[in-house]
């Protein structure tokens, strides 16, 4: 499990932790595959049955991050990598050479995996339909490599997909003079608000973001849209075109949520 690092300083009643950061300049989009700006920035939850397994699949053409939003956690088995245990509230990034499968750590609880990725859904872009090259996965399948041969295959009846948002990356309106999409990072952060705590209004105009509530109750107030949305566990809000936003703890006890963001490395931290 990668070492999690604390993010910028926050008030004592607010904890802010960066779980994973996937730097877009380090992603290898294979020649012939769909370019970044033609892809979708997607957020979903995959529910995996108790004691079940996610079948072997490739992230060579679907870079993203996995985060545990419900259940005990999972163990990820990736080709040519050591197994990684990802606990409840933790994250794991999967891109470039990652071909893997995963197992639900619990024999009694459903596992909810939040996935945020750069998806090629097969639709044309500028009149062209792109290939989806996955050379590592294709090779180990053709060779019947032991990792592939012994891995579980996808059993659709064990998985339930809940898609929340998909935003065309080309449609994102980034402020003039700010970092282009190709220079940014896909980050997953976890923010915990103490009882009664709030972030105060913060500017999300340069931070396309999804919010996924993990525990407790939060209210997401978007001044630009004139909306206030209350989120319970595994409920989400789309802030990809938001401006001034305040997130507050709207319940008793602590409230925790994920922020899934396209971060400008020149930006200051916001909660």
Description:
There is one protein chain. With 271 residues, the chain is mainly β. The chain is 5% helix and 44% strand. The chain is built from two helices and 19 strands. The chain is globular. It starts with a strand and ends in an 8-residue tail after the last strand. The model has no long low-confidence stretch (mean pLDDT 94).
Characterize this entry briefly:
The chain contains 2 helices and 19 strands. With 271 residues, the chain is mainly beta. The relative contact order is 0.21.
SSE layout:
Layout: E1 5-6, E2 14-23, E3 40-48, E4 53-58, E5 64-70, E6 73-78, E7 84-87, E8 91-94, E9 99-104, E10 111-119, H1 135-142, H2 146-150, E11 159-168, E12 185-193, E13 202-203, E14 209-215, E15 218-222, E16 227-231, E17 236-238, E18 244-249, E19 255-263
Antiparallel strand pairs: 1-2, 2-12, 3-10, 3-11, 4-9, 5-8, 5-10, 6-7, 6-9, 12-19, 13-18, 14-17, 14-19, 15-16, 15-18
Strand order of the largest sheet: 1-2-12-19-14-17
Distance between the amino and carboxyl termini:
24 Å
H/E series, N to C? EEEEEEEEEEHHEEEEEEEEE
Helix content: under 10%
Number of strands: 19
pLDDT averaged residue by residue: 94
Radius of gyration, rounded?
A: 19 Å
Number of helices: 2
Classify the secondary structure makeup into a structural class. Answer: mainly beta
Query: pLDDT under 50 segments (min length 5)?
Result: none
Overall body shape: globular
Assess the beta-strand content as a share of residues. Answer: 35-45%
Taking the sheet with the most strands, its summary is: 6 strands, antiparallel
């Amino acid at each position: 499990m990668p070492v999690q690092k604390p993010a910028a300083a926050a008030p004592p009643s607010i904890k802010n932790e960066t779980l994973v950061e996937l730097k877009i300049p380090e992603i290898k989009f294979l020649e012939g595959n769909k370019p970044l700006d033609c892809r979708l920035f997607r957020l979903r939850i995959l529910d995996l049955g108790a004691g079940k397994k996610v079948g072997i699949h490739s992230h060579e053409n679907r870079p993203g991050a996995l985060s545990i939003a419900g259940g005990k956690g999972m163990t990820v088995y990736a080709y040519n990598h050591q197994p990684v245990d990802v606990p409840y509230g933790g994250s794991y990034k999967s891109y470039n050479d990652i071909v893997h499968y995963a197992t639900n750590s619990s024999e009694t609880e459903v596992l909810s995996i939040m996935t945020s990725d750069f998806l090629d859904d097969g639709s044309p872009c500028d009149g062209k339909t792109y290939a989806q090259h996955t050379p590592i996965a294709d090779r180990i399948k053709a060779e019947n490599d032991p990792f592939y041969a012994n891995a579980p295959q996808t059993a659709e009846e064990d998985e339930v997909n809940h898609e929340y948002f998909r935003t065309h990356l080309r449609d994102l309106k980034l402020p003039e003079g700010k970092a282009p999409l190709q220079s940014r990072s896909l980050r997953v952060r976890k923010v915990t608000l103490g009882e009664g705590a709030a972030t105060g209004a913060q500017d999300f105009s340069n931070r396309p973001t999804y919010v996924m509530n993990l525990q407790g109750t939060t209210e997401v107030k978007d001044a630009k849209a004139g909306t206030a949305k209350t989120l319970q566990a595994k409920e989400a809000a789309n802030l990809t075109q938001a401006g001034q936003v305040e997130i507050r703890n709207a319940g008793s006890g602590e409230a925790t949520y994920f922020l899934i963001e396209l971060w400008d490395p020149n930006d200051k931290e916001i909660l």
